[in-house]
Amino acid sequence: MGTIEYQVVEHTKTLAGTRKVYLTTKARELLDTLQKASINTGFVDNDYIFVNEKGRIHVRALDYRLRKYCSNLNIPEKSMHKIRKTFISTLIDNNVNINYIRETVGHESEETTYKSYCFNRLSTEKTENILENVLCG
């Protein structure tokens, strides 16, 4: 079994990878708090949000901590990837334009967004009620 190696590169996987992402007021406040905490601890890096004395914190470490804190708070554990899928599905459920969603998450095609990241978050009963209303008026 091979080892996994990580490398920081100066480019994204695709042209769609370079993008702007809307942040809510609460998210901007949280980023401000994180930045101040980094300054207070002396771990400042203008390229990364989550850093420590060794540099940037890797996604796996963030994912581990996220799951751990969810468990500690007795809430369902979510991975970063699951949060991304929920984010995309929530935008689709709320009729946000698919091209805006695709661009925001860095997908080159709508197909990728729908096929790999969109899932039905409603219960079977709610889905069937919607189908009944749509099909029978």
UniProtKB/TrEMBL annotation:
One record GO biological process: DNA recombination
GO molecular function: DNA binding
UniProt keyword Ubl conjugation present: no
Record has Aminoacyl-tRNA synthetase as a keyword: no
Regions crossing the membrane: none
Keywords of the record: DNA recombination
Domain Tyr recombinase intervals: 1-132
Gene3D superfamilies for the chain: Intergrase catalytic core
Domain of life, per lineage: Bacteria
Protein name: Tyrosine-type recombinase/integrase
Source species of the chain: Anaerocolumna sedimenticola
